[in-house]
Design goal:
alpha+beta, three-stranded mixed beta sheet, 12% helix, flat
């Protein structure tokens, strides 16, 4: 799942997405959740924030602070490429 504002690990006080999507996503079969918005790299293990999948939040908005993520999928397996 890829989206801008993190559903899990968002530091804002305004959290409408968790209220709207939390129950549905508890059963979602995603392998990973990739978000941005906070401008601070963060990784949350599965179940750490009531998330049913690992969460990766990318860093800054400038190129020198950016987080670059490359994902590779082979058959049913998805992995990050270093």
């Amino acid at each position: 799942m890829i989206h801008h504002i993190p559903l899990y690990g968002n530091r804002d006080t305004f959290q409408p997405c968790t209220e709207l999507w939390g129950n549905l996503l508890e059963k979602a079969p995603f392998d990973v959740n990739i978000s941005g918005h906070t401008h601070q790299f963060t990784y949350h293990h599965k179940k750490e924030k009531n998330n049913n999948f690992p969460v990766v939040i990318g860093e800054g908005y400038r190129m020198e602070d950016a987080t670059v993520m490359i994902l590779s999928k082979k058959e049913k397996k998805c992995r990050s490429v270093s």
